[in-house]
Structure formats: C-alpha cells, structure tokens
Amino acid sequence: MRYSEYRRCGYLRNRNMCSIFLSRFQGMAKDVRVAQPGRSPHKMLKRAGVLVTAMVFLLLAGKVFAAEPSGAQEYKDNCARCHGADATGKGQDADNKPGYHPADLTHISKDHGGTFPHQEIYDVIDGGKRLPAHYNFNSPMPLWGLSYQLKGKEYSEESEAAVKRKINALLDYLESIQEK
Description:
The protein is mainly alpha-helical. It folds into three domains: 1-30, no CATH class; 38-67; 71-176. The protein contains ten helices and no strands. It has helices at residues 3-9, 15-28, 32-35, 41-66, 71-78, 80-83, 108-111, 118-126, 144-147, 157-176. Helix 5 (71-78) crosses helix 10 (157-176). The longest helix has 26 residues, at 41-66.
C-alpha cells in the first residue's frame, strides 16, 4: 500500500503518527521489490502458495480421472463385440445366442422421438431394473451394474459412484453417435 492509501483508509490518525510512518515508508521505498506495486515479498509468497496448491490439485485430479476410461473406450472394450464397432448391432458375437440380436445403438434417439432417453438406457445397461415381465433374464446382455462394481468394495458408496461414472460415460458416448 502506498502512503496515500494508508492515509485514505484511516490507518494514520494524527500528524505525529503520519510523520513517523512517512519516515519509515521512505526508508522502505529504497528497497526496489517493495517500492514497485504488486511486487511485495508477501504477495509473491501468497501467489506462489496459490500456484503450488493449484498444481497439486490438478495433479491429483488428473490421477483420479485418468483411472476412468472414456465412454468410447468402455464401448470398445465391453460392447463392440456384440453391438459392433459402428454400434449397428453387427458385432462378431452378434449371433452367438439363437433368437437374440443386439440392438442398433445408433437409432436410440430416432426411436424415441429425437431425444436420447438417458434414464431408460441407463437402466438397460445397469441391469438393476430387469423384471421378468419386462425383460428376459436369459438375455445375453450382461448386467454391467454388477460387472462394474469395485472388487472387494461391492455396493459401497465408492463402488456405486464408480458404476455411475462408467455408465454415464458410456451414455455420453452413445448419445454422441446417434444418427440425426
């Protein structure tokens, strides 16, 4: 802070204190680092602390998110063998189970009036809402909600959060490949 700023803020109450402060302030002005605005050693330390904290946060966040595969990678690893690399239902294992054929995943929005039904597709992938009257238990479609559980931590909050992240990443990918 400059002398005029101190005076304006009311830090200096009387003339005697003003003269004492002025003599000290003029002595400090000889140190170039303090005299230049924005170059106070305290401000520099504070800025360095903020930068270090931000870098640590970014490094930790990168490790957390790097462990999660993208929706495209998840699709390639777990879905493409039946639904095909192009998601049209023509994968190498498409006809392994007689009577079942994988869905064409590029027409989901088109089949639902132009909007992608997130919750409905989430439920199909998760498999938690399969009921005998609504879905055949003999379906070759895996229950990814069970498969994605963290080993040794099944059904914990952490594991359920990991399942949601993977399925939501997959949903984002599926929404991005919809035919217009």
